[in-house]
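Q: I have 117 residues here and want to know how they pack in 3D. Can you give me a structure?
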Amino acid sequence: MGPVCGTSIPSEAAKLIRNYDLPGIGLRGVEQSFSLGDLVRYGLDGSIRTDAILRDGRTIAAPVLAVFDIKTGGAKLTPERADEIRMHLGVGKDVPVIELHISKGLDAKSCLYILVS
């Protein structure tokens, strides 16, 4: 799928997630950047970006319940990357980092597979 799909699919997914304004994610829990426990400017050098964060409430101060990471093609969420995400969010291993993997089916439609690390 390559790097174009690796960035365009998560961007399109972010738009859809925002449109649904899901409880615990809302409009602001999508594509946020973090560095060592702090919410920082999007794309700040040295920060990590999450695809979506589920919180126990609608504010960015509410506890993190889960993190969703969108992958395409052969990309996989590694345990090391999950630990890096948790470190930058300032959360423990009790917070699951969930891989949402998009892969092409035989009919060229996308399928969504959820893997919990």
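Q: Anything worth noting?
A: The two ends are 23 Å apart (CA to CA). The CA atoms of residues 66 and 96 lie 5 Å apart.
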